[in-house]
């Protein structure tokens, strides 16, 4: 039996992939019958709304992540709970925390993504933020008992960057939410390609928008692009880019699309286009495949690892390469499309949040130097 603390302050879809990871990890751990005790730190929004079994204790900690209060107060709050192991689901581990912990490192995008185009901050604050980021990130990596990574690609990056023992890093592949494969229709002209996710520079929406414009200059019929992305400063930049490139007749920004509508948005599309320069896993691609559409993806190491031969790959730095992949998707015959989608749906079922939670629980026990009952 172990006493496990989870920092759940990033729980909720408003926290994008991190929030979805926590929703599914907590949900699946709660389904596992055990005598283990869990403590979860939650912000006010989910403290009352989240129903958990009797062996779970909720602690209200309405402290924003990346804040000074997080650094100063969280270590004391955790110490009072006297737990065997703490799981930080993100790299923002307080520098003064002295307990045993595991940390999930989802990606190393900010190590690679530099420059003022990747921020909304003025230059002095941006460089101060980057310094703080590296100090906190490095601390989490060095002092953790174990690191959980969502892919072998992230594990390899961590080993190369920090000269770590491979045994310290455990790959726990994520799952996908099966409820996304259904849903209500969204009004979108056809035929269309779709992109979902944030509009950060590494997502390469600039290349995708240029590609949809180039595709339409060579096509007899209009082909559209739907972008499902919560509105913020980065989507505003994308809107300006659409105008500047003359692509406004082909691109529709939908804003945030809830899970209950995502499935139909994927399913009714020609394909989901994932033009990122870098990722840690690639969850939206699995959602798209499970929903019954084609996947067009950047030819990068992590996508090859996660999707195998279930995608049409292109060079994300070459607009013409993206256009070629789009034309290939448009030209796939009805029977070939059905066969490819059927194969992909069978393939994605190997990814499971339940399996990830089981693997994570085993890592908790290993970190506690304890044997898991019945294992």
UniProtKB/TrEMBL annotation:
Keywords for the protein's UniProt record, in alphabetical order: Transferase
Domain Glycosyl transferase family: 179-333
Protein name: Glycosyl transferase, group 1
Keyword NAD recorded: no
GO molecular function: glycosyltransferase activity
InterPro entries assigned to the protein according to its UniProt record, in alphabetical order: Glyco_trans_1 (IPR001296), Glyco_trans_4-like_N (IPR028098)
Species of provenance: Candidatus Woesebacteria bacterium GW2011_GWD1_41_12
Glycosyltransferase subfamily 4-like N-terminal domain ranges (all copies): 17-177
Biological processes, Gene Ontology terms: lipopolysaccharide biosynthetic process
């Amino acid at each position: 039996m172990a006493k496990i603390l989870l920092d759940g302050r990033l729980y909720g879809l408003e926290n994008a992939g991190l929030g979805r990871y926590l929703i599914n990890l907590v949900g699946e751990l709660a389904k596992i019958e055990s005598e283990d005790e869990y403590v979860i730190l939650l912000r006010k929004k989910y403290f009352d709304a989240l129903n958990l079994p009797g062996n779970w204790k909720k602690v209200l900690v309405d402290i924003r992540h990346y804040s000074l209060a997080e650094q100063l107060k969280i270590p004391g709050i955790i110490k009072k709970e006297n737990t065997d192991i703490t799981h930080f689901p993100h790299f923002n581990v307080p520098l003064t925390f002295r307990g045993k912990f595991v940390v999930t490192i989802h990606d190393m995008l900010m190590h690679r993504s530099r420059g003022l185009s990747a921020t909304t901050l003025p230059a002095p604050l941006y460089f101060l933020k980057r310094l703080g980021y590296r100090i906190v990130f490095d601390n989490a990596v060095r002092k953790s008992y174990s690191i959980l990574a969502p892919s072998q690609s992230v594990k390899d990056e961590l080993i190369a960057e920090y000269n770590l023992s491979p045994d310290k890093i455990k790959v726990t592949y994520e799952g996908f939410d099966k409820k996304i494969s259904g849903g209500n229709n969204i009004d979108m002209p056809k035929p269309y390609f779709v992109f979902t996710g944030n509009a950060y520079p590494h997502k390469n929406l600039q290349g995708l928008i240029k590609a949809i414009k180039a595709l339409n200059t060579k096509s007899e019929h209009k082909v559209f692009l739907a972008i499902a992305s919560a509105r913020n400063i980065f989507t505003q930049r994308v809107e300006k880019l659409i105008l500047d490139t003359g692509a406004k007749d082909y691109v529709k920004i939908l804003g945030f699309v809830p899970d209950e509508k995502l499935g139909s948005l994927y399913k009714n599309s020609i394909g989901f286009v994932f033009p990122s320069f870098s990722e840690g896993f690639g969850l939206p691609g699995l959602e798209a495949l499970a929903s019954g559409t084609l996947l067009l993806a950047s030819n990068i190491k992590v996508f090859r690892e996660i999707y195998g031969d279930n995608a049409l790959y292109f060079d994300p730095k070459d607009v013409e390469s993206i256009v070629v992949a789009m034309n290939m998707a448009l030209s796939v015959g009805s029977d070939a499309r059905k066969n490819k989608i059927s194969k992909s749906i069978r393939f994605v079922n190997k990814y499971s949040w339940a399996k990830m939670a089981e693997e994570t629980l085993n890592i908790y026990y290993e970190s506690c130097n304890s044997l898991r009952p019945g294992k």
